Amino acid sequence: MTEAARPRHSIRFHGRSYHAMVLAPEPPVTNWLAELDTWLERSPGFFFGRPVVLDVAVLQPGKQGLAELLQNLAGRNIKVMGIEGAEPFWLDFAMPPLLLSGRQTSAVPGDDPPAAAEAPASAPFSGSDPDAAAALSDAPSLQGDASAPPVAPAIPRQPNSLLLDNQVRSGQCIVHPEGDVIVVGSVASGAEVIAGGSIHVYGTLRGRAIAGSRDARARIFCRKLEAELVSIDGLYMVADDMPAHLRGQPIQVWLDGDSMMMAQD
Amino acid sequence: MAKVLVVTSGKGGVGKTTSTAALGAALATAGKNVVLIDFDVGLRNLDLVMGAERRVVYDLINVVQGDAKLAQALIRDKRVPALHLLPASQTRDKDALSEEGVARVIAELREKFDWVICDSPAGIERGATLAMRHADVAIVVTNPEVSSVRDSDRMIGLLDSKTEKAEKGERVEKHLLITRFDAARAGRGEMLNVEDVLEILSIPLLGIIPESFEVLRASNLGSPVTLNNPMSAPARAYFDAAKRLNGEALDMTIPSDRKGLFGKLFGRRAA
């Protein structure tokens, strides 16, 4: 009897974002593939082990065309992990999944130091190339000269924070995966705020604040800490583990590597 | 212009039914035409607290389902003629309430009365959501303790999202009624104090009802405390709350029996 009544442990799901290269073929496909071949001759194995997303928004190949394109890429040892910009009915089950909500970021080694540091290690073939950085930054479009200086693409940043003028009441769950959440009132005990970015609470934080589901640099700020749980990028701290002297204080929470830091503001 | 008032709390046992009866009686003695509706189908209590349990023939379910006319189900109070009761059914459950039926009954009551006061059941299920559905004004009853405050907070969230007014983009007017308040225990930190509760819930305060044996005595006699002993501390607090509901601005005080008790003690000693 107790067996049946025992609650199952729920499975935890985490959001995580990765850098992937986007291949955006342009019509006509045969020309584009020929260009790709010349590229691959110069840097064979460039795509080896790299996550590649295929963006067909420009090409619009249709169901048949997409299948052929995937075959062509597979023939060149390019594994596609996801497809963007396709109509759902073009895809069959064996194809990589359709990706939505992707956002353009800088070219791979651009302004993200960790990614740049990892790049040579994970791509041994390009590591030997003196202008590897340039090659990488040009790779997504496969255009222009390999020795051209890296272009810094403008990052389109929409104002996508969520401002809540009222209190968040017990039982309410605010989910905003796109950016920061700003709560002008308090977050009640039993309420939950989940943000892709940082969470700012200008009242008392009594409920749960789960920040940075897409960003380990996210932070949690509140005027008065009475929280049940704070979490950033999957790491969490429950009320029992919070330093007692910070209770009731205005605080800031951030991640330092794999440890959660909390300090009075 | 009739107003529909819901008395709600989320948590059980905090004094919803007592407050419904006391406020209803206070409003009725002030000359308003009042009807109290018991939404606690299956666990009705309001008829007992009002002392009308022997006069129940038809109930809310009968009216909602069209088996009885509203006039047949309404019970007029013997003490205050302007006070009426629409009892709940003890034998049915909350699923017997249909949304359209409740809407029709409330609309009909709006035409006849100044105040339609809905006594909500505990919890956040069907009965409670139907009771608050058509409300213009809500009284959130809270005891000064953490579980009650948190449940009330949840209720306020529901009032802002699940009521007809909220769905039209308007706001339900919300008031906080703190019941069973003991100033001495709050002072010693054994209870939340009024400031704490107000800070957490941040809705306007309608009244503070002191903890008193008078409340239990009145309930057991089947009489709202405002009728049973109008001079007692809880009754005075309820009268003040009723005046505030009618728009009067009064200073917030916590009436107390203590002076009276001391007076009696000294009186006896002197004699």
Which descriptors would you attach to this protein?
heterodimer; A: 265 residues; alpha/beta; 6 helices; B: 271 residues; eight-stranded mixed β-sheet
Give a topology summary.
The complex is a heterodimer of chains A (265) and B (271).
Chain A: H1 2-5, E1 21-23, H2 29-42, E2 52-55, H3 62-75, E3 80-84, E4 98-99, H4 113-122, H5 124-127, H6 132-138, E5 162-164, E6 173-176, E7 181-183, E8 192-195, E9 199-205, E10 208-211, E11 220-225, E12 229-232, E13 235-238, E14 251-256, E15 259-264
Parallel strand pairs in A: 1-2, 2-3, 3-4, 5-7, 6-8, 7-9, 8-10, 9-11, 10-12
Antiparallel strand pairs in A: 11-14, 12-13, 14-15
Chain B: E1 3-8, H1 16-29, E2 34-38, H2 46-49, H3 60-64, H4 70-73, E3 75-76, E4 83-86, H5 99-112, E5 115-119, H6 126-133, E6 137-142, H7 146-159, H8 164-167, E7 173-181, H9 183-187, H10 194-201, E8 205-210, H11 213-221, H12 225-228, H13 233-245, H14 258-270
Parallel strand pairs in B: 1-5, 1-6, 2-4, 2-5, 6-7, 7-8
Antiparallel strand pairs in B: 3-4
Helix pairs in contact in B: 1-13
Question: Can you give a write-up of this model?
Answer:
The complex is a heterodimer of chains A (265) and B (271). Chain A is of the alpha/beta class and 265 residues long. Helix content of chain A is 20%, strand content 25%. Chain A has six helices and 15 strands. In chain A, strands 5-7-9-11-14-15 form a six-stranded mixed β-sheet, with no helix packed on it. In chain A, strands 6-8-10-12-13 form a five-stranded mixed β-sheet, with no helix packed on it. The model of chain A is unreliable at 105-152 (pLDDT under 50). Chain B has 271 residues and is α/β, with parallel strands linked by helices. Chain B is built from 14 helices and eight strands. Chain B has helices at residues 16-29, 46-49, 60-64, 70-73, 99-112, 126-133, 146-159, 164-167, 183-187, 194-201, 213-221, 225-228, 233-245, 258-270, and strands at 3-8, 34-38, 75-76, 83-86, 115-119, 137-142, 173-181, 205-210. Chain B has an eight-stranded mixed β-sheet, with helices on both faces. At the A-B interface, loops of A face helix 7 of B.
